[in-house]
Q: What sequence folds into this?
């Protein structure tokens, strides 16, 4: 079987195209059923996430789908013209396809390097293909191997360590100060988009209450409504004039207003620690310009962080992950090689058997011609002649087979295999394993 | 080197290894060193338990729990057991480095304080509880103190914005709570230890007639007791003594307990 992947991702296609191409869960299964009807002998897994749509196929050596067929199939599924997709779709065959899948599952090809969702999404895609009956022998070996590689990458390298979003860093900081959240009050000052994203991360920790305040009351109401609806959390709106006074009751404060000057000065904040009985207070100021006077952070029990502090952490994490890339590539390369060698050595079996059959046929024919002519030869001489012919055939076969085996992993095994077929006019029987190329074989 | 010394040395080395591995895990953020700390800690505790068990079988509880090596090993074991326990709690993960460190120190100090038997003990069996209560209360107060030290370290990390370490050390709230609880458990037991000590003096007429109140162990223990009494009251009633200040004073208390321990071992005539 030949392996092929076609698709687009966040680098090759704009979001408008990815939106048009995206499949939901039911859509994936319907498309796979359509694939099965159209290409009965081929296998397929359709991976559709917000950042990529990819069709992984395995087809018989001279069968379909070819690249154009696969692109055409996806275009038909989404009601698009295949011409629209040719510029944004990439395609990889054989070793490159395997390498690409390993990179995708290992999150090396993701928008956020090392993110964990893609592995689960790949698993879901494979499960959908199994349900739809399009994951045959080849893809059922390839995908679990990809999951193993992804696991190895995550456990052996630093690709998945640390935090990469401001929101998750804020949660980490909150967890470093507080051990429980069910008795904590989160106070959101301002209704900025960035603040809301950070807030959503914190809401996942299920705080006791959430207070929202904004200069424009309507926006605070809107945000509180959204939170009540999406998180079923207790969200209260605090009038903007009262927010500084209510600060003494809060435990985590997120500020993201559009004010030009700090709205919380050290003088204004000075009585708060005493009112709070010096309990720790975490302030995350993600506004630019800053909402909180940096001197507030010097007060007892106050931990103040601004957007730069949080971004430094995300940058450090990404740098750390980028450093781990080399190690990840090594893991992928060794696994690609191992996978292809296993596949190729398995696929060489039928060719070698066909060669054996061919040489056996030749020696048989020659014996049939020779034996009637040797009237004086006894049984022993006949056996010796037969033995000699078999030995000659065996020795003749040894060199090409040995050469073929040596080519495994070099990327030229397919060429040698095809040459051997042509030279000896080999035909591989259907019940044998399907013929493929070796590592680096041609698409 | 006899077999008992070998066992106690093994315990000390195991606890020191556990401390080193736990600190390495803390600094590097890797999980593998933490996997070494746990078995090393268990080996340390087992070695100490074997030693104390041997001593109990050999010369009975009264002699065993006098202020000597066995008491130190018991103290180190109690601290190590809690350190092992922190591996299984998500909120206190990372505190084990601090606790194993103090346990290893106590263990090695215990090795150096092996005192020969002071002859036939004239204590009554109930007097065993004096030594035991000091071992348990010291363990609690050491844990409280180390938790306070950890609090100060984490506080410094957060204030200096060394955010790469965030997530590897326990939260401030968890450390504060742990320090308070261990203090709340340790202080009454410490009080009981002092009361049994006073009873012991009353029971021993030869000591009761002397100026026992000038004994360095009595002075240091009472100083520590008054300090902890003040700390407990302040933590409950004085709102200003919170966070970093509370941690600082709790750590100071641990130093007083350590001084008392050394005084009892090396400079207390009534304990000889």
A:
């Amino acid at each position: 079987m030949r392996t092929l992947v076609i698709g687009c991702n966040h680098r090759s296609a704009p979001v408008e195209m990815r939106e048009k191409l995206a499949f939901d869960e039911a859509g994936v299964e319907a498309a796979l059923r359509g694939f099965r009807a159209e290409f009965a002998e081929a296998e397929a897994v359709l991976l559709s996430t917000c950042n990529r749509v990819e069709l992984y196929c395995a087809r018989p050596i001279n069968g379909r789908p070819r690249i154009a067929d696969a692109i055409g199939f996806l275009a038909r599924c989404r009601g698009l013209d295949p011409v629209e997709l040719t510029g944004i779709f990439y395609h990889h065959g054989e070793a490159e396809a395997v390498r690409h899948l390993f990179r995708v599952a290992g999150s090396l090809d993701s928008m956020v390097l090392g993110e964990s969702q893609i592995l689960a999404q790949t698993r879901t895609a494979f499960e959908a293909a199994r349900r739809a009956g399009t994951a045959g022998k080849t893809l059922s070996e390839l995908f679990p191997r990809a999951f193993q590689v992804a696991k190895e990458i995550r456990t052996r390298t630093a690709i998945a360590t640390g935090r990469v979003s401001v929101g998750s860093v804020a949660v980490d900081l909150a967890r470093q100060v507080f051990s429980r959240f069910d008795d904590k009050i989160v106070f959101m000052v301002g209704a900025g988009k960035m603040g809301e994203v950070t807030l959503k991360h914190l809401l996942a920790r299920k705080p006791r209450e959430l207070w929202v305040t904004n200069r424009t009351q309507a926006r605070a109401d809107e945000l509180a409504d959204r939170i009540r609806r999406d998180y079923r959390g207790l969200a209260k709106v605090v009038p903007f004039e009262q927010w500084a006074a209510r600060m003494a009751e809060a435990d985590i404060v997120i500020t993201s207003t559009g004010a030009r000057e700090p709205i919380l000065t050290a003088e204004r904040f000075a009585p708060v620690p005493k009112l709070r009985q010096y309990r720790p207070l975490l302030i995350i100021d993600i506004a630019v310009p800053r909402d909180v006077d940096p001197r507030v952070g010097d007060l007892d029990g106050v931990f103040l962080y601004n957007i730069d502090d949080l971004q430094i952490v995300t940058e450090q994490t990404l740098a750390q992950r980028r450093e781990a890339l080399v190690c990840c590539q090594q893991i992928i390369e060794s696994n690609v090689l191992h996978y292809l060698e296993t596949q190729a050595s398995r696929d060489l079996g039928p060719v070698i058997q066909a060669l054996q059959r061919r040489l056996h046929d030749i020696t048989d024919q020659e014996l049939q011609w020779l034996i009637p002519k040797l009237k004086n030869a006894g049984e022993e001489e006949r056996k010796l002649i037969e033995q000699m012919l078999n030995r000659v055939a065996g020795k003749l076969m040894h060199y090409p087979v040995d050469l073929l085996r040596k080519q495994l992993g070099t990327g030229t095994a397919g060429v040698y295999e095809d040459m051997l077929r042509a030279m000896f006019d080999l035909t591989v029987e259907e019940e044998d394993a399907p013929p493929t190329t070796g590592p680096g074989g041609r698409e | 080197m006899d077999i008992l010394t070998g066992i106690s040395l093994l315990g000390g080395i195991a606890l020191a290894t556990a401390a080193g591995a736990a600190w390495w895990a803390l600094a590097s953020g890797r999980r593998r060193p933490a996997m070494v700390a746990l078995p090393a800690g268990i080996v340390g505790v087992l070695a100490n338990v074997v030693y104390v068990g041997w001593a109990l079988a050999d010369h009975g509880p009264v002699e065993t729990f006098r202020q000597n090596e066995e008491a130190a090993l018991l103290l180190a074991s109690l601290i190590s057991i809690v350190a092992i326990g922190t591996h299984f709690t998500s909120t206190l993960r990372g505190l084990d480095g601090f606790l194993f460190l103090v346990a290893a120190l106590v263990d090695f100090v215990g090795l150096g304080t092996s005192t020969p038997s002071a002859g036939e003990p004239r204590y009554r069996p109930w007097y065993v509880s004096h030594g035991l209560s000091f071992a348990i209360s010291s363990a609690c107060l050491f844990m409280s103190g180390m938790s306070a030290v950890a609090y100060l370290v984490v506080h410094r990390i957060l204030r200096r914005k060394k955010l790469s370490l965030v997530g590897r050390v326990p939260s401030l709230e968890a450390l504060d709570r742990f320090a308070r609880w261990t203090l709340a458990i340790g202080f009454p037991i410490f009080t009981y230890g002092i009361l049994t000590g006073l009873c012991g003096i009353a029971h021993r007429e030869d000591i009761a007639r002397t100026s026992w109140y000038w004994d360095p162990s009595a002075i240091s223990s009472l100083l520590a007791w008054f300090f902890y009494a003040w700390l407990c009251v302040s933590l409950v009633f004085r709102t200003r003594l919170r966070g970093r200040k509370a941690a600082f004073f709790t750590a100071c208390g641990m130093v007083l307990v350590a001084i008392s321990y050394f005084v009892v071992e090396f400079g207390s005539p009534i304990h000889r």
Q: What stands out?
A: The two ends of chain A are 11 Å apart (CA to CA). The CA atoms of residues 166 and 312 of chain A lie 9 Å apart. The mean pLDDT of chain A is 84.
